[in-house]
Amino acid sequence: MNLAHLHLLLNHFPIIGTIVALGLFIVSFIGKNDDLKRSSLIIFAAIALLTLPAFFSGIGAQRAVRKDPLVSTAVIDRHEGAAMLALFFMLITGALALIELWKRRRIVTEKPWSGNLLAILLFSLITAGLMARVGTTGGDIRHPEIWSVKDVTQETGLSALVHIFEPTPSKFTDLMLVSKYWWAFMMDLHFIGLALLIGTVGILNLRVLGFEKRLTGASLHRLMPWAMAGFGINVLTGTLAFIGMPSYYAFDAAFWLKMLAVLLLGLNAAVFYLTDAFESVERLGPGQEAPRLAKVVAGSSLFLWFAVITLGRYIQSYADTIR
Amino acid sequence: MVPPTFLRTIEDSGFSTWLRESESPFAFYFVLLFHTFGLALLVGANTVVDLRILGVAREIPLAPLKRLFRIMWLGFGINALTGVLLIIAYPTKALTNPVFYMKLTLIGFAVWIITLLKDRVFNDPKLNEKAMMARGATLAKWSIFLWIGAITAGRLLAYTYKYLTYPC
Fold first, then answer.
1. In 3D, which of A301, A259, A310, A315 has the Cα closest to residue A10?
2. pTM above 0.90, yes or no
């Protein structure tokens, strides 16, 4: 399997996943079903995470078709620009979904409407539309037989309007490299995000594993919005860095293993919140020992976050390790 | 101005050359990795204490957070050691850059704040939580500010050096 295969496998998730989650989200209002609403929010967050490797693997697919005389660079650029815009809307939708899930972690019934729910509806609607466009423009790359006009890059109507807001990939890349101080600033934020994330997640994990038992699980869990803020900073600065040097990261084995570790952390978080591990940590009082499942989740979390740091540190020395 | 020659002496040593030029993943990048681990432990643990003192997650009892100071010192120890190794690998690069001295100064103050937080806030048994928060608030703000500064200066070292190695 190469990056082109990975791209063709992953690129279906953001399109179909957003539509499925949006459908469930809307039905949850009609049916006044809070469980369904939670499920749709979880799917939004999961799909946002999966959209990252789908986006990052695109450059590999591009390299695979680049030499084909039937493939036009303009059509690929249009697809990539569409993907960039859709990615940022997807990330915002995912972040809003996580905020809503945080609010709903204890209370069973919430207000039927809130500003945040409205924002999720709005952003996920736009995301679904943009993702459909990413799919369409992506399909055009390899399938000229479905083109409705002679030159698909000449757009009219709504497509032309959306296209105005889509970045030109090479210009976006140049913008990220405009100054070494802008790059240094992004990397600086990436390290600050790292410290914030590891500090807050680390103390909760350590307590679950038995460190300083006077601390209670529920109180330390209150730090999680700060951990998510650190994660958000790092997803954003990491994505911008990728856009600045796409082929540096995309053909790097350490980078892809780091992405795998991040996805596994998403899975680990899902296991924590969707099993009784979460309740057992919330009830973890002074001096008490956490049950085995919670310890396994906490241990995996610590291990994977340090793996993420390790793999990130080795990106520089593993550049060009993927053909 | 020519950099002092002792920098070249360090750079020409076998250990420095090995750290800098070895293809082994356990040379330069390994040291850099542990420098990052140390940062995560030291600044991560300190940030949790700072945030709690400033009123974040008030449900967390303050006194038991004293245990986090051990993690901070562990991180500091790792970074003092790996920091020296990084200087041995690139002495000219580090020691001819004013930003490097700024970084050390910021770290010096940040570590001083850690000792003050421990002595004045955590080691005073007379204080209740409210008094601990009141006494620690200014220190916690400075701590966050100084660590952001130290990390920023550290990052800038990769972008602002005048010489990577000793000029021949």
1. A259
2. yes
Give the phi and the psi of residue A290 in degrees, each rounded to 5: -75, 150
For residue B26, which of A304, A321, A310 has the smallest C-alpha distance?
A310
Which string of DSSP letters, residue by residue, matches A173-223?
A: HHHHTS-HHHHHHHHHHHHHHHHHHHHHHHHHHHHHTTSSTTS-HHHHHTT
Co-location of A156 and A204 in the same domain:
no
- A163 with A233, same domain? no
Residue in A180, A187, A223 nearest the CB of B48 = A223
**Domain interval for residue A83:** 1-167
Same domain, A144 and A261: no
Nearest to B44 among A202, A214, A220 (CB): A202
A160 and A173 in a common domain:
no
Please tell me whether residues A124 and A261 are part of one structural domain: no
What is the predicted pLDDT for the residue at A149?
Answer: 74
Calculate mean pLDDT across residues A282-308: 97
* Backbone angle region of B24, left / alpha / beta, with phi > 0 → left and psi within -120 to 50 → alpha: beta
Residue B55 is classified by DSSP as T
Domains in chain A, number: 2
Same domain, A91 and A114: yes
Mark yes or no for CB contact A195/B151 under 8 Å: yes
* Dist. CA A10–CA A272, nearest whole Å: 25
Question: Hunting for tokens 């991040």 — which residue is that?
Answer: A262
Q: Per-domain residue ranges for chain B?
A: 6-160
Q: What percent of chain B has pLDDT over 90?
A: 96
Are residues A15 and A156 both part of a single domain?
yes
Mean pLDDT of chain A, nearest integer: 94
Q: What is the pLDDT of residue A107?
A: 67
- pLDDT bucket at A2, cuts 50 / 70 / 90: confident
Mean pLDDT, rounded, for A301-316: 97
Place of tokens 């939004």: A44
Residue A147 has pLDDT above 80, yes or no: no
Q: Does B138 touch chain A (CB under 8 A)?
A: no
